[in-house]
Design goal:
Layout: E1 16-19, E2 22-25, H1 29-37, E3 44-47, E4 56-59, H2 72-89, H3 97-104
């Protein structure tokens, strides 16, 4: 499953955090699903390589490690922090600017 800000289709979440130096609404659905089902929550990015038509999928580390009993809030904030790190490395490659402006800013 790929995380998508679930609040773009409904109520905005109560949880907020920092993303791209702004206070934003933080989705907690992916963290809740990972915790309830004891499954990993792994960030991924699509990386286009030279002339290939399909991008490579690059997987990150598990953000909902079962060895550390983290709360849904902690996992959600860690997820945003991970996304923040990825996007800040090259903001021109992030496709989510309209979602960020229309939905994520709190």
């Amino acid at each position: 499953m790929i995380m998508f800000p679930e609040f773009t289709l409904g109520k905005k979440p109560k949880l907020t955090g920092e993303f791209l130096n702004q206070n934003v609404y933080v989705p907690s659905g992916p963290a809740r699903l990972a915790c309830q089902n004891s499954i990993p929550l792994v960030p991924l990015k699509l990386k286009k390589l030279n002339n290939r038509k399909l991008p490579n999928v690059v997987l990150g580390d598990d953000l909902a490690s079962q060895s550390e009993k983290q709360t849904i809030t902690e996992i959600s904030l860690n997820t945003m922090s991970s996304m923040d790190d990825i996007v800040k490395k090259d903001p021109s490659k992030w496709w989510g600017w309209q979602i960020f402006i229309d939905y994520m800013l709190s």
